From TrEMBL:
<dbReference type="GO" id="GO:0043531">
    <property type="term" value="F:ADP binding"/>
</dbReference>
<dbReference type="InterPro" id="IPR041118">
    <property type="entry name" value="Rx_N"/>
</dbReference>
<dbReference type="Pfam" id="PF18052">
    <property type="entry name" value="Rx_N"/>
</dbReference>
<dbReference type="InterPro" id="IPR044974">
    <property type="entry name" value="Disease_R_plants"/>
</dbReference>
<feature type="domain" description="Disease resistance protein winged helix">
    <location>
        <begin position="429"/>
        <end position="496"/>
    </location>
</feature>
<dbReference type="Pfam" id="PF00931">
    <property type="entry name" value="NB-ARC"/>
</dbReference>
<keyword id="KW-0547">Nucleotide-binding</keyword>
<keyword id="KW-0433">Leucine-rich repeat</keyword>
<dbReference type="Pfam" id="PF03476">
    <property type="entry name" value="MOSC_N"/>
</dbReference>
<dbReference type="InterPro" id="IPR027417">
    <property type="entry name" value="P-loop_NTPase"/>
</dbReference>
<dbReference type="InterPro" id="IPR032675">
    <property type="entry name" value="LRR_dom_sf"/>
</dbReference>
<protein>
    <submittedName>
        <fullName>Putative late blight resistance protein homolog r1a-6</fullName>
    </submittedName>
</protein>
<dbReference type="InterPro" id="IPR038005">
    <property type="entry name" value="RX-like_CC"/>
</dbReference>
<dbReference type="Pfam" id="PF23559">
    <property type="entry name" value="WHD_DRP"/>
</dbReference>
<keyword id="KW-0067">ATP-binding</keyword>
<keyword id="KW-0677">Repeat</keyword>
<dbReference type="InterPro" id="IPR042197">
    <property type="entry name" value="Apaf_helical"/>
</dbReference>
Length: 1026
């Protein structure tokens, strides 16, 4: 943790010496001494890197090092900031430096004396502590990671089959793995995040009759705590003999265990194996040539399972489904899985859902709910108390006094190497349920100084750190890119709560500011001067309006799904209040234009801003010599960059969806570090630009692509370019008739996206000649024409192909045209008759949506022929999108799936039940698709009419058993709306085709839909595998 901070300051001192040599005149000797002392701190931290147990004295020294580094950084940056505020308008650098030096003196800031004082008052005590630590030889007492696991945090609960709810499919899969015949000893690993139920599930399998019948010898060993090989050996031998072997030495015990296990069938469960080295110790006693032996291990860390059996992919235990979570919660509260009274059902189901499928969280919250239930059997009062819990489920889980769930995550946290700890805790800066873009996360890690320079790029190192956290089951993958890199990720609410609790201790890492239900900020805004990093998600404009200064604040982070407007008078508050800011992500607020004042923040390394009409970047950005990442979210088509980016030597990423027009004749030494430039206008794609940005890895081009393909430009010089996006603006008027030959593209291009080019399919033969191409995405009529005939040289390396919004009807391709294709995605190809059989030889995944019935049938035929080795993904139903309006909320209007209608003066629910055939991809509503509510809904609205042809009471999912599409609402007659057309009218009621999401009223109806219809209508479209 502290070592990255030390490394960051050492690098900064080098940069200051390069850029501000005049300013540090007189301080060279003190800065040199400070460097040496920081080097001692780095060596001390490096020596302890591979030690697991670090005493309180070490942690205290680590804290002191962090504090002195922070103070040194603040001292240097404050001097530079004060100087820059008064800098002259003169543009010559020598004159600029002269003014900076004079300003520093005028402000009574003496860098030499400041550094000297800091070394004497703060660094010296730290070095003395390091010497005492060494003299006491505490390091010799540190226990290596292999020898000791984490300190025991809690007693495991007793395991019984009654405690297991759900996971029936997982139990079946794992049991089948165990019973599967092998030619040698088989090792099966089960991995998952803390609290997911790995131990509980494996105990259920261990105790099952099928396993007992097949394995008379079953052994259970819990190895999580201090590994004592001798105890493990004796535990195993107890299953074979009652003889007392405690007097035997380890060598004879090992031989005896290996002999006993070699004699026939056995099943050994090793629960909670923490490390590869621990597994290797266990492995030494196992008879690897016994093909009747089976070993099942559970672990939180993927690499343990991969190492234990390289030939078997570790089994990733899933989270509970919503209905399983609800069953488990009922079991914990009422003693049986269907014991909830109807009055508590809505609230209880929502609480279970908020646990996000984590069994441990459900058990903990169950303990809270059962207390309320036992105190009074008045269901109205119980429901009111449950609704209070419902508002803050996460807090009730984390702050539970009967069970400290943080200790479960703490065990994993203590196993993290120091270089991962800050990266992990930083995940708490994102809001609850936030889908975290991996690119944003890694860029922030780099800007914060958490990523140490290695023998590979900072980005690759950061990506590896994220992958390691995923492999340790602390971070969940949400979406993958076609190249299997993480696109987005999430953390469970329990993990996020741990990160926030740990990170905010002593204000070390960051502080989240929230508003209580009483309208009070916690912590108070007046405490802002204490913190170095601030997370303010929902109330940033309000807090900025208070104009509280934060002289120590280095990061200001605000993430929201929908940006809000910032009052123009509050725009200058950010640069005026946080003048040492290094990281600014203000994408949750909208600016009318790029805030000019941000260019005063000379220490900025990361800027992300939003504004619908941002059309230019000011010239003064050129002065932000620390800037690494610049993100501009704007709806403008064009972004004029008046700044000279070639003066920004640290710049690595420029990210926007607008077409970037670079300043003409911009000169400067920078460009070699630039890796991402998205998106560039074709006019700016010059040889001079590409010569400077020679190390680009990702490039986007947007505009009139004919300008790019005019024969005078080439991307060939970009030898490191792997990802290219080409967006043709105004495609109808800028349609492309020519396409460059293969020589136009860099030889190492791996991913290519083309949008709106309207090219003839014959030009695909040119793309096929890019031998390195692995991923190809064709969007928005990238190619057009009735027929695509794949002829000639095929795509030799292509493994992923997406075609979206194409108008072709006939597609011909031979088996050798796509010899490496693994994944094919077809979206909104409304004319396509069928899918070429020639594509399917090596195809593993076919994902289709918005294609004709004939294409669907051909896909299903392919699935029948290919069997279980082939995955066919079809839309089970359309995307479900909500929009609240003063008159309507409509869900899935195009296929008439679910509606609500405003009934003055309040919005009331209109119910829609679906017939079974509505789940067919080709289903369309007809004139008989209406009538009748059912008993399931009547439970929530007493007096609601129940028709005999509706679903039966007690049906687990009435939507799946209803024989009609029904539309009804409390207090209304049944609506008889034929849904044949996209818009229809019945009884004077119109059904509109609307999409979007905005909530302004009708929360009761929304809650009912969320709770009662979520099984068939979740808020993001699921996919199912045939």
């Amino acid at each position: 943790m502290a070592d990255a901070v030390v490394e960051f300051l050492l690098n900064k001192l080098t940069e200051v010496g390069q850029w501000y040599a005049d300013l540090i005149t007189g301080a060279e000797n003190d800065l040199h001494q400070l460097r040496n002392e920081l080097g001692q701190c780095r060596s001390f931290l490096a020596d302890a890197e591979n030690k697991l147990k670090k005493e309180e004295l070490f942690r205290e020294i680590e804290r002191q090092i962090r504090e002195v580094v922070y103070d040194a950084e603040d001292t240097i940056d404050t001097c530079l900031t004060e100087a820059s505020r008064e800098k002259a308008k003169a543009q010559e650098k020598p004159k600029f430096m002269k003014f900076m030096r004079k300003t520093a003196q005028k402000a009574n800031i003496s860098l030499p004396s400041q550094v000297r004082s800091l070394r004497e008052d703060k660094m010296k005590p730290v070095l003395e502590s390091i010497d005492r630590y060494a003299n006491l030889q505490i390091s010799a007492a540190l226990v290596a990671r292999v020898e000791e696991g984490p300190a025991k945090a809690f007693e495991l609960p007793s395991f019984t089959k009654d405690n297991v709810v759900g996971f029936e499919d997982e139990e079946l899969n794992i049991t089948n793995y165990i019973l599967e015949p092998k030619d040698e000893l088989d090792v099966i690993s089960i991995i998952g995040m803390p609290g997911l139920g790995k131990t509980t599930l494996t105990w259920k399998i261990y105790e099952s009759q099928k396993i007992k019948f097949n394995f008379p010898v079953r052994i259970w060993v819990y190895v999580s705590q201090v590994l004592n090989k001798r105890d493990v050996l004796l535990t195993i031998l107890k299953e074979f003999t009652s003889q007392d072997m405690s007097g035997w030495n380890d060598h004879h015990l090992t031989l005896e265990v290996r002999k006993r296990l070699s004699g026939g069938k056995f099943l050994l469960f090793m629960d909670d194996v923490w490390s590869v080295k621990v597994w290797n110790i266990i492995k030494d006693v196992l008879p690897m040539n016994n093909k009747e032996g089976k070993v099942v291990i559970t672990s939180r860390e993927r690499h343990v399972g991969t190492h234990a059996n390289p030939n078997r992919v570790p089994h990733q235990l899933r989270f509970l489904y919503d209905h399983e979570s609800w069953r488990l919660l009922q079991l914990k509260v009422f003693g049986k899985q269907d014991g909830c009274p109807p009055r508590l059902k809505l609230t209880g189901e929502d609480i279970a859902k908020q646990c996000k499928g984590l069994p441990l969280a459900i058990v903990v919250i169950g303990g809270v709910l059962i207390d309320h239930y036992r105190r009074t059997r008045n269901l109205e009062l119980v429901n009111e108390e449950w609704m209070e819990v419902q508002k803050n489920v996460g807090i009730h889980i984390v702050d539970n006094t009967n069970f400290n769930i943080n200790e479960i995550v703490e065990m994993s946290y203590k196993r993290l190497p120091d270089y991962l700890r800050d990266c992990f805790l930083y995940l708490g800066v994102f809001p609850e349920d936030y889908e975290i873009p991996a690119r944003t996360l890694t860029h922030l890690w780099i800007a914060e100084g958490f990523v140490k320079p290695e023998h590979k790029s900072l980005e690759r190192t950061a990506e590896d750190s994220l992958r390691e956290l995923i492999d340790r089951n602390l971070v969940m993958v949400e979406k993958l890119n076609p190249n299997d890199k993480v696109r987005t990720c999430r953390v469970h609410d329990v993990v996020r709560a741990f990160c926030i609790t740990k990170a905010t201790k002593d204000h070390e890492l960051y502080q989240e500011i929230v508003k209580s239900k009483e309208g009070v900020f916690q912590p108070p805004v007046s405490d802002i001067p204490k913190y170095r990093r601030l997370c303010i998600h929902s109330y940033l404009p309000e807090i900025l309006s208070k104009r509280q200064k934060g002289p120590r604040v280095r990061s200001l982070l605000s993430f929201n799904k929908a940006p809000v407007d910032l009052d123009a008078k509050d725009t200058p508050v950010i640069p005026d209040s946080f003048d040492l800011l290094r990281v600014l992500d203000s994408t949750s607020i909208k600016f009318n234009q790029f805030p000019e004042g941000l260019t005063k923040l000379m220490h900025l390394r990361y800027i992300a801003v939003s504004g619908d009409e941002i059309e230019s970047l000011p010239k003064a950005i050129s002065d932000l010599w620390n800037l690494q990442t610049l993100v501009v979210n704007t709806n403008s088509d064009f972004l004029k960059v008046e700044a000279n980016i070639w003066m920004l030597s640290q710049l690595r990423h420029v990210i926007t969806r607008a077409a970037i027009a670079l300043a003409i004749n911009g000169t400067g030494p920078a460009g070699e570090n630039l890796q991402t430039l998205s998106r560039l206008s074709p006019d700016s794609c010059t040889d001079d630009v590409f010569k400077k940005a020679c190390n680009l890895n990702k490039l986007g081009v947007r505009g009139k692509l004919a300008t790019l393909f005019d024969g005078r430009k080439s991307l060939k010089k970009l030898g490191r370019l792997e990802k290219l996006k080409l967006v043709n603006d105004k495609p109808l008027s800028n349609r492309l008739y020519v396409f460059p030959e293969v020589e136009f593209f860099p030889s190492g291009l791996k991913r290519l996206t083309i949008t709106g080019a309207y090219l003839d399919w014959k030009h695909m033969s040119k793309l096929a000649k890019i031998n390195s191409l692995q991923v190809l995405k064709l969007k928005g009529k990238a190619f057009c024409g009735e027929c695509w005939k794949g002829a000639g040289q095929g795509f030799r390396s292509l493994h992923y192909l997406l075609i979206q919004d194409a108008d072709f009807a006939v597609w011909e391709a031979t088996p050798d045209y796509f010899p490496s294709l693994k994944t094919l995605v077809l979206k909104n190809c409304k004319n396509l008759i069928d899918i070429p059989e020639g594509l399917t030889a090596n195809l593993e995944v076919l994902d289709i949506d918005g294609v004709p019935e004939t294409a669907l049938k051909s896909a299903e035929e392919i699935k029948k022929r290919r069997g279980n080795n082939f995955k066919l993904i079809l839309p089970s139903y359309d995307e479900v999108r909500l929009r609240w309006d003063r008159l309507w909320m409509v869900v899935n209007a195009q296929s008439g799936r679910m509606f609500t209608q405003r009934v003055a003066p309040k919005l009331a629910l209109v119910q829609v039940d679906l017939p079974l055939d509505a789940f067919s991809p080709s289903w369309k509503p007809n004139k008989t698709s209406f009538l009748g509510p059912n008993k399931y809904w009547a439970e929530f609205w007493p007096g609601l009419e129940v028709r005999p042809d509706s679903g039966q009471a007690g049906d687990p999912n009435p939507f799946l058993v209803s024989s009609h599409l029904v539309m009804s609402a409390p207090g209304m007659n049944v609506l008889k709306i034929p849904l044949v057309e996209p818009r229809a009218v019945a009884n004077g009621v119109s059904v509109w085709d609307w999409h979007g999401s905005a909530f302004d009223e009708g929360e009761e109806a929304a809650t009912c839909i969320r709770n009662q219809a979520r099984n068939i209508c979740p808020w993001s479209r699921p996919q199912y595998q045939i």
